[in-house]
Amino acid sequence: MCRLLGMVISVGIRSNIAVYKGSEPILLSHLFTRPAHSIINQAFDSRLRLDLNTPINGDGFGVGWYDSVTDSELGQAPCIFTSVTPAWNNINLRRIAEKIKSPLIFGHVRASTAGALSETNCHPWRYGRLMWMHNGQISQFAKIKRRLLAALPEPLFLFPQGHTDSEFAFALFLSHIKDPKSSDEFSYQELKDAMLQTIRDINTWSKEAGVDEPSLLNFCVTDGKSVVCTRYVSSKTDEAASLFFSTGTSFYEHSKGEYRMVKAGRRQKIVMIASEPLTFEQADWMEIPSNTLVCITPNMNVLQYPIMDEFHNACPETLARNPDFVLRAGFHTSSSLTEAGPSTTVPHRRQMSSSSSAQVSA
């Protein structure tokens, strides 16, 4: 499975992702190299993945970021660095992580499920100012690939350079944006609507093609201002790939490799979304329910929307992992940092206090 990190998977759950979005830029190293459970360490120490048969994400990685200030010469597009080497063994990643700051970062470590081992198949991808990554798989993608290609307008037909279902899903998403090459920022509503239509198309074509296995669609997209992510599985009974989020006013290293999310005010200045928590402090993280879309707005509001389609489950907590599993994985509150002792509340039981929710139909 891939691992996602955005500080803003069945056979296919083999990546980790992470997203960072903050009012102030942060060094990449605070996400990728320094934390004890950084996305690099998750590449070989993934604790919440569904497919335990392939526990190492060593088939490449990618990191994408936006400049802290607008430069007319550099433009609005993000910079992306990818490699087919394991993230933990790439000296260049460690070098740039100590020298680059950004207010919006995407990170992805890959375990290949589709496509050859090549940089063109490494997440994230960009188109204009838009950036995209995916954890999971479109089940039996070959059965719907022709339908997907036929739905793409001419400018997007030749856009995919690799062979992954994830990049073709990005092309499909772009087809639902009015002007994906625009240099202007997109509203989070436009990104949200395009994301829901992308999921709807995949589900419709999969059903028509007789696909009999669920797809895992943890998608993330950003234009550098807004972020839209999904935790989704096309099933009412199966579990989606894990996805967590954390908000606060600062993310600091209180001891070597050990980080905390500090909440020193009513308004969050940092939002992180990740396949697995970057810290072992349970109080820092909340699990995003299965089949939910999350938006981070330009002014740092976090909005969650249950995706109301045929796979909606009115009680998503019934699909969540057993609390004992989460505790055994090591995600607990450190007794050395809280007078109350270890918390017995697992992330997905906590309520989202800093976000609002509404239902959306896919």
UniProtKB/TrEMBL annotation:
Pfam families: GATase_4
GO biological process: glutathione catabolic process
UniProt xrefs under InterPro entries: EgtC-like, Gamma-glu_amide_hydrolase, GATase_2_dom, Ntn_hydrolases_N
Biased composition (Low complexity): 353-362
Keyword Isomerase part of the UniProt annotation: no
Region (Disordered) residue spans: 337-362
Residue span(s) of domain Glutamine amidotransferase type-2: 2-362
Record-linked PROSITE patterns: GATASE_TYPE_2
One GO cellular component term noted in the UniProt record for this chain: glutathione hydrolase complex
The UniProt record lists the keyword Transport: no
Stated name of the protein: N-terminal nucleophile aminohydrolase
Species: Malassezia pachydermatis
